[in-house]
Design a protein that fits this description.
Chain lengths: 415, 230
């Protein structure tokens, strides 16, 4: 075996360029694989984090009626002040943070422009900032005070309305009693959250302002709860117990962020399938490269192979010598691929890739900002390395067998 | 005891609708230590006969025995082992492995045998290269050697495993006559030293002179078989 390995290594030096080109092609494929995987993982996990940090917390408590119609933000199934107080008390008793919110479907306009649909979210700035991370994403202006009378809009909204800090925008919506209401509010803050759904759809006012302008009178349609650990359990089950012992379980329901984000989670599953197809494609390209290179090697050495077989080298040994040679290319390619992958990963982990010019307003289905980062993925590096070598070994069997297919007498006469 | 026995060898090649009768009932034996030439014009069947004796090809009819082993009954793998253990080849084109040095070319064939330690094999290889007059050139690659030197490496490669039989198909055809002569002298010397059976083919008068036995082959038939008086 040692002599075969030696022969294989020497054979790799016959056409250094060809070996390198095949190796580089492979390295490129494997590096892309590692890189894409790290990025998709980040996007996936970041999306899950953002679902919690910007949309759903860990779980949301609302009335049963509200739950069934939540997409339409109904205003006739609110929780009253007393219920809200109890629920928050229970949640905070468990160490969780809880924030009541009410969403109003609205049209926003500025300077005689047409109304653009947004959800006007009424929240308690102090409580809300303990549940959600929006406060960290203020671009200009300020995050609302509890008694603020201004509106916090997203950078997307600011651009669409062409309105900035200090401008008064017109919000057309309905009050809790379904009467039409149009209010002019000063923009006091602009945020840019990493969750595109929030960026594109939500603007924020205080509950105090909603109470006075939209007649909510201390009610709210949902209470978002965030656990101190970030995990649902054991807080979820304790919350259920708490609601039950307060006699609230008949009217209220709890939905977890996984229930609420199930659309996204399902899509993220299929995206993973998609990335596997991408992997497969890369490896088909690698396989074609290896088979091509090895077939060339076999054909240019017909006479030598004939001679070695004449001198008693068995067919198995000949096949092995070619497989080992391919494995050598596989090793070079995989090793370089992992190195390159680490480099690309590192760039994406520390610097990130700004896709904002590419898909600023495009929905690519991830709840992330337009700067994409990577997660380190040592398991994928190992997998890519092993898979790369295995793949070359596997596909090289075909050309290697070709080497012993010819009759020895024909190979010796071969010109 | 005869090293090689060929009995009633017939070999036909089919080229499209035509049948080329390359060997027509060839009977010949070679004793151990013989130094024989198969002589005949191009196309007379020399290579075909050597290939059959060398277990590279099977006759359509007839039987070949090497060291009393009946070749017909052997599997592919067994044939490879027979070639590895008993037969050395030298060809007109040297067919050395260009990425290996002279030393490695010879040593590689020895290592296929899986006998002896690596150190022992290296010693044997060095001795063999010395015997073919390549001392000091063992680290050269084939392209850094002249044609005659390359053929010497090929001879060393054929002989290093101490085969019972060495087959050389027109070993001097690619060499100038002076180099050819030195190659013949080398083979003769090795034949005497090791009592290895040599069978070579040629159509060169000068080369024939070296043989102690000359077998004339014409159109696939032996027309003359004569031994020189010692
Ligand atoms: N593989 C082959 N296929 C077809 N014909 C062949 C083959 N090998 C040899 N022949 C034919 O058999 C005859 C003998 O060839 P060969 O043994 O090579 O002669 P020599 O070595 O004496 O020149 C020639 O007519 C040659 O054309
Ligand atoms: Mg010939």
């Amino acid at each position: 075996m040692k002599n075969l390995i030696n022969l294989a290594v020497k054979n790799l030096t016959r056409h250094t360029k060809r070996t390198l080109i095949t190796g580089i092609a492979m390295a490129f494929g494997i590096a892309m694989l590692i890189w894409m995987d790290g990025m998709l993982r980040w996007a996936d996990n970041e999306s899950k984090r953002n679902l919690q940090r910007y949309e759903f917390g860990n779980f949301i408590i609302s009335t049963k009626e509200f739950k069934t119609d939540r997409k339409n933000y109904p205003l006739n199934f609110m929780m009253d002040k007393e219920t809200i107080r109890k629920v928050i008390e229970i949640a905070e008793g468990l160490g969780c943070s809880a924030s009541p919110r009410t969403g109003f479907i609205s049209l926003l306009s500025f300077n005689r422009g047409f109304g653009l649909p947004y959800v006007l979210m009424a929240m308690d700035p102090e409580k809300d900032s303990r549940v959600f991370s929006l406060k960290e994403n203020i671009l200009t202006g300020k995050y609302p005070d509890p008694e603020d009378t201004g509106v916090l809009i997203s950078s997307v909204c600011s651009r669409e309305l062409n309105a900035g800090i200090g401008d008064f925008i017109t919000i057309e919506t309905r009050t809790r009693y379904n009467t039409y209401q149009s209010i002019d509010i000063k923009v006091t803050g602009i945020f840019n959250a990493p969750d595109p759904v929030v960026n594109r759809n939500q603007v924020f006012i205080t509950r105090a302002l909603a109470d006075s302008q939209l007649q909510t009178e201390g009610t709210a349609s949902e209470i978002v709860v965030r656990s101190p650990s970030g995990e649902n359990e054991p807080f979820l089950s304790r919350m259920r117990q708490g609601l039950a012992s307060a006699g609230l379980e008949k009217d209220l329901v709890i939905e977890t962020w996984q229930d609420l984000g199930s659309d996204f989670l399902a899509i993220s599953q299929t995206k993973r399938g998609g990335s596997r197809i991408f992997m497969l494609l890369i490896f088909i390209i690698v396989a074609v490269g290896i088979i091509n290179t090895m077939l060339m090697a076999v054909f240019e050495r017909v006479r030598e192979i004939g001679m070695l077989r004449a001198l008693g080298m068995s067919d198995r040994e000949v096949i092995w010598s070619f497989i080992l040679e391919a494995a050598g290319i596989g090793f070079i390619g995989s090793f370089a691929g992992v190195l390159l992958g680490i480099g690309l990963d590192a760039y994406s982990v520390y610097v990130g890739l700004d896709f904002s010019s590419l898909f600023e307003d495009m929905d690519i289905g991830y709840r992330t900002g337009s700067v994409f980062y990577n997660e380190w993925n040592p398991d994928m590096m190992l997998l890519g390395f092993i898979f790369g070598i295995l793949c070359t070994v596997l596909v090289s069997i075909l050309p290697a067998r070709k080497a012993v297919k010819m009759e020895i007498t024909d190979s010796i006469r071969y010109i | 005891m005869a090293t090689v026995v060929c009995r009633n060898i017939v070999k036909n090649y089919r080229i499209g609708a035509d049948i080329v009768r390359a060997l027509k009932d060839v009977n010949v034996s070679f004793e151990q230590g013989e130094f024989s030439a198969i002589v005949g014009p191009s196309g007379s069947g020399k290579s075909t006969l050597l290939n059959i004796i060398g277990c590279l090809d099977k006759p359509d009819q007839g039987e070949v025995k090497i060291n009393n082993i009946i070749i017909k009954d052997q599997t592919k793998k067994a044939l490879a082992d027979i070639r590895r253990d008993h037969i050395g080849f030298v060809f007109q084109t040297f067919n050395l492995i260009p990425v290996l040095t002279a030393f490695e070319n010879v040593n590689f064939v020895l290592s296929l045998k899986n006998s002896g330690s690596a150190a022992e094999n290296r010693g044997i290889t060095m001795k063999m290269l010395e015997e073919v007059g390549l001392k000091g050139l063992e680290h050269r690659k084939p392209l850094e050697l002249s044609g005659g030197q390359q053929q010497r490496v090929a001879i060393a490669r054929a002989l290093v495993k101490e085969p019972a039989l060495v087959l050389a198909d027109e070993p001097t055809a690619n060499l100038d006559s002076r180099t050819g002569e030195s190659i013949m002298e080398l083979m003769m010397k090795l034949n005497l030293n090791k009592r290895t059976t040599f069978i070579f083919s040629t159509h060169d008068k000068m080369v024939m002179e070296y043989a102690r036995r000359t077998i004339d082959l014409h159109d696939g038939m032996i027309t003359n078989d004569q031994r020189k008086k010692p």
